[in-house]
Specification:
This protein is mainly beta. Helices cover about 5% and strands about 40% of the residues. It has two helices and 28 strands. The strands form seven sheets. Strands 1-2-3-4 form a four-stranded antiparallel beta sheet. It has a four-stranded antiparallel beta sheet with strand order 5-6-7-8, with no helix packed on it. The chain is globular and about 50 Å long.
């Protein structure tokens, strides 16, 4: 299932005023135009989560909504994510990870849900560490934390209850980095324009080549066909009113052997409003990308692309399988509508708000 890992590499948190959780969850639903969709995550077919910002009233807040019936009904979770832009990561069909600001705006916190987002518990970070976006969990128990300032690395095997400091990562470049693990042993750190790989769970690291994209604006995705590097070339949006102030062209390259070698880089067929969430790796070589007008599909690792449905200006795209997908649509300056497809993107129907 598609998981938008790139959001974890460059998490962007926006400060909002504190809000009373009970009032947020118990008051009548606001008018439709008061909801903004901040985050979209697909689960198994028919299941999805939304992080929505409630802009109504004098105390706006953020909440997690969940559907298990294809979007016919949405249930709010009893979550403390009330005034923060949140990044979700699905570990299994019941376990989610998220990050948010403290209630008083004094700091950030890492959260975990073991019941599909109904309730959340705080996860401890290594001593003295403050940035939940620097953590990467492979399972409920196993995770790593990379200090964004100096490259120190910790590992936990008990869900954050205790952390073990590992040797540091030589050559770490703080301004832009990302971390990704495929197994308890195999992982990667993208540091500036350098790719580092480990085969022993983070104890040692070796440099790996990156495709010659000509830019250091690169993110990594883990797919069923191997490691995928996505290089972005960003430029200002050509007209006002978009949900993003930039558009991006992008190239993709696949490594079937963990970064030792790379297949020829391929260009996306279009520019994107949101380069970090408008690309879905569905299964095998089935990829989908969305632009301001339509969905494009590839079944051969990006060598060729064919136009599919035309749902509108997409700012978020995710699929649970090759047929079951979701797209958040820009309305003015924010995503306000969610569409669903059951035929791989040929046809779409509105499922949020109802």
């Amino acid at each position: 299932m598609a998981v938008a890992l790139a959001a974890l590499f460059a998490g962007s948190l926006a400060y909002l005023r504190p809000v009373n959780v009970r009032l947020l969850l118990e008051r009548p639903a606001p008018a439709r135009h008061d909801y903004e969709i901040d985050q979209l995550l697909a689960g198994v077919p028919g299941e999805a989560w939304l992080v929505v910002a409630d802009r109504s009233g004098r105390q706006p807040g953020t909440a997690v909504l969940h559907t298990a019936d294809g979007g016919r009904t949405w249930k709010p979770g009893g979550t403390p994510l009330v005034h923060a832009y949140t990044v979700l990561k699905e570990l299994d069909d019941r376990t989610l990870m998220a990050q948010a600001f403290e209630f008083d705006g004094s700091g950030q916190m890492l959260l975990r849900s073991s019941n599909a987002g109904i309730t959340w518990q705080r996860v401890k970070l290594p001593p003295g560490q403050l940035y939940p976006a620097a953590a990467y969990f492979l399972s409920r128990e196993l995770g790593w934390y990379l200090d964004p300032d100096d490259g120190r690395l910790w590992r936990t095997a008990d869900g954050g209850e205790s952390w073990v400091l590992l040797p540091g990562i030589e050559g770490f470049d703080p301004p832009r980095y990302g971390m990704l693990f495929a197994s308890p042993q195999q992982g990667w750190v993208l540091s500036g324009g350098t790719l580092l790989a480990t085969g022993d769970g983070g104890l040692s690291w070796a440099s790996r080549p990156l495709p010659g994209f000509g830019t250091t604006d690169v993110t990594l995705r883990l797919t069923s066909v191997g490691l995928v590097a996505v290089a972005h070339q960003r430029s200002p949006a050509p007209f006002a009113g978009l949900c993003s102030d930039t558009i991006a062209s992008a190239q993709l390259a696949v490594s079937p052997d963990g970064g030792l070698t790379w297949l020829e880089a391929r260009s996306l067929p279009t520019t994107l409003l949101n380069a970090d969430s408008n690309l879905a790796f569905v299964r095998g070589g089935d990829w989908e990308v969305a632009d301001q007008e339509r969905i494009w599909k590839s079944s051969d690792l990006g060598r060729t692309w064919k136009p599919a449905g035309a749902p509108g200006p997409v700012v978020g795209l995710d699929f649970g399988d090759p047929y079951d997908g979701w797209a958040s649509i820009c309305g003015g300056t924010a995503a306000r509508t969610l569409l669903a497809t059951g035929d791989g993107g040929q046809h779409w129907s509105r499922v949020f708000p109802r």
